[in-house]
Amino acid sequence: MIHIVLFGKPGAGKGTQAEFLKQKFNLVHLSTGDIFRYNIKNDTELGRLAKTYMDKGDLVPDAVTIDMLQSEVDKNPDANGFLFDGFPRTIAQAEALDAFLQTKNQKITATIALEADDEILVQRLLERGKTSGRPDDQDEDKIRNRYQEYNEKTAPLMAYYQQQNKFYVVNGIGSIEEVTQRLVEVFNQLG
Description:
- By secondary structure, this protein is of the alpha/beta class.
- The protein is built from 9 helices and 5 strands, in the order βαβαααβαβαααβα.
- It is globular.
- The chain starts with a strand and ends with a helix.
- The model has no long low-confidence stretch (mean pLDDT 89).
């Protein structure tokens, strides 16, 4: 089984690239953002709870996110592997994911970070916000708060996965096809 963690700030192209990668490598794509938005749209208990944090541009607490993700993994027992998008975002989440996968005699294969300049990403999100209907993509202050959260809480994960020789950086700027090709090259290294 192959388990990939896809990193990147909001707007870096994780969702776009995840669609291609899940098809090419037959993985189940688990986007915490998509799962939260589904729950918010359907007014579930998890959705209402997540919305209180997301409306402020804050991350949803670990316990809520981890329980939700474990449930999604358990719904796909025959998967070839998983593409984790938006999770883990903290070292505590990474350790919880490692512990959960160990109970299934599995582990993270690699982590891949899509890197891009903040100013380019802010413009991408503001453009996306015009058509996505997502309020968190329409307010520049909220976008920048999300980047600050990412820098403070997610960036330390780089060292965590670098110590395990599981961290790869991919330039997220360029055409969709160019970025996809860079990602495929990383996957090919994983053998």
